[in-house]
Amino acid sequence: MQWFKVLNTAQIPTFDSIKTIAVNGKQVCIIKTAGKIYATQSFCPHAGGNFGGGWCKNGQLVCPIHRYAYNLETGRGAEGQGDYINIFPTELREDGLYIGFKESWWSKLWG
Ligand code: FES
């Protein structure tokens, strides 16, 4: 697992939001909802929509283009979609928010 600091403590959202940021030149969505922080891939596997314009509903991330929904804990698409998104582990440390990438995810996504 390789950890990257993505936000300073002062930048960590205190309210529900979806923020697209660059990590090592690539885009990741940082999502705050229901008091938790998630990190996901920024593009929708359906047709490439940007989750940065989406919203959260009942623990799911909803794409703004065709409203496909993805479970924020597992990454699984809603019933009938048959797809998934990558959810990256997050860790709040004293100096900010970190995201972890497994080598295989890293290679597949950014390789
Ligand atoms: S591009 Fe996201 S639902 Fe179609």
Structure description:
This is (2Fe-2S)-binding protein. GO terms for molecular function: 2 iron, 2 sulfur cluster binding; metal ion binding. Its cofactor is [2Fe-2S] cluster. 25% of the residues are buried. 7% of the residues lie in helices and 44% in strands. Strand 9 and strand 10 form a beta hairpin. It is built from one helix and ten strands; from the N terminus they run ββββββββββα. It has a single domain, classed as Rieske [2Fe-2S] iron-sulphur domain (Rieske Iron-sulfur Protein). The strands form three sheets. Strands 2-3-4-8 form a four-stranded antiparallel beta sheet, with no helix packed on it. Strands 1-10-9 form a three-stranded antiparallel beta sheet. The chain has a three-stranded antiparallel beta sheet with strand order 5-6-7, with no helix packed on it. The longest helix has 8 residues. The protein has 111 residues and is mostly beta strands. The two termini are 15 Å apart. Bound molecules: FE2/S2 (inorganic) cluster.
Name the features.
10 strands, 7% helix, four-stranded antiparallel sheet, binds FE2/S2 (inorganic) cluster
